[in-house]
Automatic annotation (TrEMBL), chain A:
PANTHER family: NADH-UBIQUINONE OXIDOREDUCTASE CHAIN 6. NDH-1 shuttles electrons from NADH, via FMN and iron-sulfur (Fe-S) centers, to quinones in the respiratory chain. Couples the redox reaction to proton translocation (for every two electrons transferred, four hydrogen ions are translocated across the cytoplasmic membrane), and thus conserves the redox energy in a proton gradient. It holds the Pfam family Oxidored_q3. This is NADH-quinone oxidoreductase subunit J. It comes from Mucilaginibacter sabulilitoris.
TrEMBL record, chain B:
NDH-1 is composed of 14 different subunits. Subunits NuoA, H, J, K, L, M, N constitute the membrane sector of the complex. It is found in: Cell membrane; Membrane. The gene is nuoK. It is a multi-pass membrane protein. The keyword Secreted does not apply. HAMAP family: NDH1_NuoK. It comes from Mucilaginibacter sabulilitoris. The chain crosses the membrane at residues 7-23, 29-49, 61-85. Belongs to the complex I subunit 4L family. PANTHER family: NADH-UBIQUINONE OXIDOREDUCTASE CHAIN 4L, NADH-UBIQUINONE OXIDOREDUCTASE SUBUNIT ND4L. It holds the Pfam family Oxidored_q2. Its EC number is 7.1.1.-. This is NADH-quinone oxidoreductase subunit K. Signal peptide: none annotated. GO terms for molecular function: NADH dehydrogenase (quinone) (non-electrogenic) activity.
């Protein structure tokens, strides 16, 4: 039981517990703020998977961008939204949520079975990559390699996603403008 | 080190919580949060497998693409939610039954 394993279990416990709380709470604002905690602990898990650049991007884009956007959209939509939320009936385990709970539980059982049957640590290509020293180790810096790969090998998906992001932002600005003169 | 199976189990748990949120919530913003949870579960898988690809970094780079896609999705979805709220005065997806009037 090394320190890194303890850290992994701690972070994943925080992530799953806060996600469960976000799913269970009826208060929208509390749900959003607990989702913050989930995203931060997921960034910690990415660091433990030796993907520090993805972790930083997660913090910058998700926590800095998406959650602030959600909070703004929530606050712009007025206090009638809050009133709608307060009169939601039912607890976490009420009878009309039973089918959803059943669906999620069965999905969980099936996926856990798939994970254990697939036995990901003994896959062929994973073993080959370990034997070929193609595995990322904690003492190498991957950021410059990511930049070079992004501009050479993955240039086409990079351009496609930049065009898509531009289209999505223009479309969002067009959709959320004030009604009125056409 | 941490094995791949541990990462996969955490990601399965997050996926199922997100699925539960999407099915049960009666509020479009919380459904959006459920979608983000599912996307994060997928990103965790990509990152965990990307550890075994040092030369090409395919896992990490597609995790970055997935994060950018999530940002675009959220922007458009929030714009749509604001428009729906303006027309129906509610964001409960059960009450919305027309695409246009």
């Amino acid at each position: 039981m090394t320190l890194i394993r303890i850290l992994f279990y701690f972070l994943s416990l925080i992530a799953i517990a806060s996600a469960l709380y976000a799913a269970a709470s009826k208060n929208l604002v509390r749900s959003i703020f607990v989702f913050f905690i989930t995203l931060f602990s997921l960034a910690g898990l990415y660091v433990l998977a030796l993907a520090d650049f993805v972790a930083v991007t997660q913090v910058v884009i998700y926590v800095g961008g998406i959650l602030v956007l959600i909070l703004f959209a929530f606050m712009l939509s007025g206090k009638e939204t809050l009133n709608v939320l307060q009169k939601q009936e039912g607890r976490f385990l009420s009878i009309n949520k039973l089918p959803a709970l059943l669906l999620a539980g069965l999905f969980f059982i099936v996926l856990i079975n798939v994970v254990f049957k697939a036995d990901a640590d003994n896959l062929q290509w994973v073993k080959e990559s370990i034997s070929l020293k193609n595995e990322i180790t904690p003492n190498v810096v991957m950021i410059d390699n990511i930049g070079v790969n992004l501009m050479t090998r993955y240039l086409l998906p990079f351009e496609a996603i930049s065009v898509l992001l531009l289209m999505a932002l223009v479309g969002a600005a067009h959709l959320s403008r004030k009604e009125g003169k056409v | 080190m941490i094995s791949l199976t541990d990462f996969l189990i955490v990601s399965v748990a997050l996926f199922c919580i997100g699925l539960y949120m999407i099915v049960t919530k009666r509020n479009a913003i919380q459904i959006l949060i459920g979608i983000e949870l599912i996307l994060n579960a997928a990103i965790l898988n990509l990152v965990a497998f990307g550890k075994y690809d040092k030369a090409n970094n395919s896992g990490q780079i597609f995790a970055l693409f997935a994060i950018v896609l999530a940002a675009a999705t959220t922007a458009v979805a929030l714009a749509i939610i604001l428009n729906v709220y303006r027309r129906y005065k509610t964001i409960d997806p059960n009450d919305i039954n027309k695409l246009r009037d």
